[in-house]
Write a structure and sequence with these properties.
Elements: E1 4-15, E2 18-29, E3 33-37, H1 44-52, E4 59-64, E5 67-68, H2 71-75, E6 77-80, H3 92-102, H4 109-118, H5 134-147, E7 152-156, H6 164-179, E8 183-187, E9 199-203
Parallel strand pairs: 3-8, 3-9, 6-7, 7-8
Antiparallel strand pairs: 1-2, 1-4, 4-5
Helix pairs in contact: 3-5, 4-5, 5-6
Length: 206
């Protein structure tokens, strides 16, 4: 039986007077992903931010490896928001190096160059991010996924602005992450062609 990593029980969140969701319960085991689906405004991003500890719930509990979230959880978390978290004045390589450094991941330059090659940014690695297209900026985050050893990924619409080749690479990267015992929580409008025993669905606002 796979290790139970994340446990969510009785989670509820409001936006002002409006109830986004309530009584949300789920678990995520090692080697599995949970995809959160729902219409715009149903609370998908709020749910992800609440699990990460970025938004306070109105009710409920989130536990990591059987305990309350703390430094250990933050050290094992990779959060990718809806917008690419890049600094315009830094180059693609500098943004990647900074993101990995903040996560405490020491990655040799040759491995960073290999990841930038995989995502099609090696020849643009020295360009300031402000000169990159939206899709190229998203590829910096994809390079981080290739390199970051964090076991738990929380990704908000990770396929947005990626072309077909980059989407395929992201799915291969996610599949490899799950195969080595990682886990993921994703909000996405896309169907993810992963093995049925690795991915489950949670629909909000149904």
């Amino acid at each position: 039986m796979s290790e139970r990593l994340l446990e969510v029980s009785g989670l509820a969140c409001r936006r002002g007077p409006a109830l986004l969701f309530e009584s949300i319960d789920f678990t995520i085991e090692a080697g599995t992903a949970l995809c959160v689906r729902g219409a715009n405004g149903s609370g998908k991003t709020t749910l992800l931010r609440t699990v990460c500890g970025l938004t306070r719930p109105d009710a409920g509990e989130v536990r990591w490896r059987g305990a309350a979230r703390g430094e250990a959880f933050r050290g094992e978390l990779l959060y990718g928001g809806h917008a690419p978290a890049v600094k315009d004045e830094l180059s693609a390589e500098e943004n990647l190096h900074a993101a990995l450094g903040l996560a405490g991941a020491e990655v040799p330059r040759d491995r960073m160059h290999a990841a930038l090659t995989d995502v099609g940014l090696f020849t643009r690695r020295a360009l300031p991010a402000r000169r990159l297209s939206q899709g190229q900026r998203r590829r910096i985050a994809l390079a981080r996924l290739i390199l970051d050893p964090a076991p738990f990924w929380v990704l908000d619409e990770p396929l947005t602005a990626l072309d077909d080749a980059a989407q395929a690479l992201l799915l291969r990267t996610l599949d490899a992450h799950l195969a080595r015992g990682g886990a993921a929580l994703l909000a996405t409008h896309h169907d993810l062609p992963l093995a049925n025993d690795r991915v489950r669905q949670l629909r909000l606002g149904a």
